[in-house]
Amino acid sequence: MKYVFLISITLVTLQCTAYLNTFYNAEQAFLQANTEHMKIMRHYPDSILTTPSASISTNYERAIEKSLKVINDFQKNQKWKDDALFLIAKSYFYKRSMPKAILRFKELQQQHPNSPFIPETYVYLGKAYIEEGNLSKAEEVISYAIEKYPQLDKDQKLSMLLVEIAIRRQGNAQAISLLEEAYKTVKNEERRIDLVLRLSELYIQLKQYNKAIAILKNAPRKKELPEQSYRLDRALLNCFMQIDSLNAALKQTDLMLAKKLYISHFKEIELKKGIILGLLGRYDDAIAIFEKITAGVDSTTSISDTTGIVSEALYELALIYQKKKAAFDEARKYYNLAAQSSDTLIAIPASKRLSALDILKNLRSAPPDSAEDNNFKIAELFRFELDEPDSAYNQYIAMATGNTGDIVPKSICAAAFVMRENGKDTAKADSLFRVLIEKYPSTDYCKIAQQQLNLPVTYKTREDSALDAFKAAEVLLYEKGEIKAATQAFFNVYKTYSDLPIAPKSLYVAGWLSDDYLQKNKTAKQLYERVCDRFPNSVYCTDYAKPRLKVVMDTLQALAGKKGGNEVSRTQSETDASSSDSTANLNDSMEESSEIDDKGNELDSSSTEPKTRRNYAKYPPADPSAN
């Protein structure tokens, strides 16, 4: 009996040891994962949660596995079941498996209402609902927690979640109000800095820079909190730059560079200082700083620049050499290095500017006989590719004063637009547009100038006249119902403006009306053939005239068959003749001898409609492409 008792004691002890060991392993796996995870999250202080790495996720999964074993394999021992459930729920949360996390937190609340972990479950549930985008539920849970467990909000942990909800709802004003209230009561210095940073970010989003500057200046800087202190000074620097207080911004960079606390950020601060010096017009000083940042850089180090600081410095150097020094070879060298950066925000514009400088070099070395065309292309490069409006303007004006012909008004017009773009000099632009109206009244540029100055347009281009003639033909068709006159009018548009894009459309409409309305099959056939002879690649040939031409030719042959063999032969010979010269029999006036319609009725050449079809629909769609 004694031995049985000892064995029982031993078994119970072993079972308890296994139980404790399993839970211990679960807890250690979670602690290891969460410690590494928190190190990553310190770099994203404004985020509720960041995605864990694969190795961290593996440890969270191990914690879940061991905790489930505690619950399932040791059901008689309930002592640490709430611990295991809480560990499972937290592991799912940090793995970003929010539905599973929410389910487990609720299970803990329902099955273990007296667990010491219950208050904290509401914090996690609120965060999980925010991450899921269920903001109403998150607000409900967090508000309940603040009321039920006010101690949880002693350092504004829950209040900051309400701020996050307001921000995600685009309610910046509400978020600011919540932050301002929280700031009044917070005592922890680290929390105060966090609140200032969030509040200043919201002020900056609303462009309330002076409010942001006021709270950033007064915020505490702590040696034991170097990253937060740096973020405060960086935000203050950015505010000074946003309000163009460049001297204050420059002073701020010097103050930041004097703090050894920020030594890991010195290159970033120097980059900002170089940009500010460039904005102040101190280009040589800016170059010196950028060259210091990029010292010893080649294509290999440019590619491996993960911070983007070196790449941006290279790009800024290139911009100064291009735009301020006109040293294009130096600019090309730095654009080439920046273009090899892994940062696409730098590499792509650098590549474009490098290409533009190469084109500029080729244009300037081209033979003199193409100088006029090349000079205009050079001006376009400065204007559109190299972001040098002053150089573009000077190039256009030089071309306007040193040439004759169409290039003069063309250059004046382009120069006017350069001055008008971005409100650069609207008075000068208006003056140039008036020169076009006064000196070049019979050009397209006069019309453009009148439109830009909101003046009545007195000059019409051939395109305008062609469009007016087409619209007049439509009036005859739609408003007056004069089909024959409209058909002639559409044909006249083609005849007068055969070199313009409206020509194939006009010619097709004339054929279409002859076909569908006037029943003039031979005329329609000749017009359709002319569409394809003159405009073979036009949609009015490929998609419309060709299919209709086949139908018309079949109709002509069928009608000719009713007249007998001789008529068939005559029709066939006419068809053959038209094949060799489809427009030989088409007069400019489109007047023809009478024809036979599809019912064998003879058409009166003076009539606008077939005699037996007075109720035929008069108004087809204005644009035949609608068919």
How much is the average pLDDT?
84
Q: Sheet with the most strands?
A: none
Shape: extended
Distance between the termini: 105 Å
Helix/strand-derived class? mainly alpha
- List low-pLDDT spans: 1-15, 567-586, 591-627
| Rg, alpha carbons | 41 Å
* Tally of separate helices: 29
Helix content range:
over 70%
Can you summarize this structure?
This protein has 627 residues and is mainly α.
Describe this protein with a few key phrases:
single chain; Serine Threonine Protein Phosphatase 5, Tetratricopeptide repeat; 29 helices
Overview of this structure, please?
This protein has 627 residues and is an all-alpha fold. Among the domains are: 244-365, Serine Threonine Protein Phosphatase 5, Tetratricopeptide repeat (Alpha Horseshoe); 366-452; 490-626, no CATH class. The chain contains 29 helices and no strands. Helix 5 packs parallel to helix 7. The termini are far apart. The model is unreliable at 1-15, 567-586 and 591-627 (pLDDT under 50).
Fold blueprint:
Elements: H1 2-41, H2 54-73, H3 81-94, H4 98-111, H5 118-132, H6 135-148, H7 157-168, H8 172-185, H9 189-205, H10 209-218, H11 226-242, H12 246-257, H13 266-279, H14 283-293, H15 299-303, H16 309-324, H17 328-339, H18 344-364, H19 371-385, H20 389-401, H21 407-420, H22 426-439, H23 444-452, H24 462-478, H25 483-496, H26 502-516, H27 521-534, H28 539-562, H29 565-580
